[in-house]
Amino acid sequence: MSPYTAEFIGTALLILLGDGVVANVLLNRSKGQSAGWMVIATGWGLGGAVAIYAAAPFSGAHLNPAVTLGLFAIGKFEASKVLGYLFAQLAGAFAGAILVWLAYLPHWGETPDPAAKLGVFCTSPAMKHHRLNLITEIIGAFVLVLGVLAILSPQNMVPESGIGKGMGPLLIGVLIWSIGLSLGGPTGYAINPARDLGPRLAHYLLPIAGKGRSEWDYAWVPILGPIIGGILGAFFYKTFWPA
Q1: 3-state class (DSSP) for residue 22
Q2: Cβ-based burial of 72 (10 A; exposed 0-12, middle 13-18, buried ≥19)
Q3: Which domains does the chain have, with CATH numbers?
Q4: How many CB atoms lie within 10 A of CB 197?
């Protein structure tokens, strides 16, 4: 499998399981309706682990432009692959959102709330203040990229520690779960530009009755914030965890 195909499939899995749990909680007449934030954060964490296991052997499982650009910024990823990875991630996120729409097809018409429908696909702040929302997304992505690099550092990924290479994706899933529980409240923790932009585009294009606006005026926040946070997190790791 090519690394670009792996990034596409892995990101599609991430969105299918991540947006899928949101649909399960938010859409009317779903068996998981009103299950709450703990279920959503857990679904994203476990979905992230599954997606990383699927893609890691072929691409390193970035599945996130913030990760790709952060690694590129500190010299850990080659420039020739950056655009290909970004395109594959965005396309995979769009495809994953379409699969969620299909999986819950009867439930869209049973759900009158446009905000709930939008929330299945992409993030929206609890309190809209773009600059402050941007800071929240920067912090979340900073923790994500720093955490990923720290978890996968040679000091941790050694057989003698009992944490072998195969544990990495599971631990990154725990990291995503932790970010959702601790930092997800203000903005819904996009922490991934493709995760937000691809499904937002799907929301805009798909025939969903009563879906309302796709809130493009906010869309730049979960794109720019994670990119800034991811690059800062990568440089922070490079500074304090030197090879």
Answers
A1: helix
A2: middle
A3: 3-240 (1.20.1080.10)
A4: 21
